[in-house]
Amino acid sequence: MVELIKGSEFIDERGALRFFNDFDMGEVVRFYEIAPVDTKIIRAWQGHRHEKKWFHCLNGSFIINLVKVDDFDNPSDQLVPEKITLKSDNPSVLAVPKGYATGIKAVEEGSRLQVFSNFGLEASKKDDYRFPLNMWDALWQ
């Protein structure tokens, strides 16, 4: 089940502290950051049959479309993506279970997205499925 884990923020004269006390990182084995060159780039679709991912917007905002893939070898083109917007000023972590394909697009210039995975790089490559951008009718605005 896709889950949005709410974070929070504490601000005082020293600055801001964002925290995600409900985000259990016990499964995480690596993380990386995506910083799109502009807001026109759409990174879609990348799926994982077994890998789980978590997305956190560090700066700006992102549209993330998700599709529960029915058949990784021959997916239906009738699947309907779910659109979620992550914003850095509304701290949250999007947990995407195995079996999904995702597509991402920055909404603001300078946006940065942190991605956590429960798979190492080599295992992730063996579980990597790419589908054409026009495979599913997603909303990118």
UniProtKB/TrEMBL annotation:
Q: Which domain of life is it from?
A: Bacteria
SUPFAM superfamilies listed in its UniProt record: RmlC-like cupins
Q: Do you know which InterPro entries this protein is assigned to?
A: RmlC-like_jellyroll, RmlC_Cupin_sf
Q: Any idea what this protein is called?
A: Putative sugar epimerase
Q: Which organism is it from?
A: Flagellimonas lutaonensis
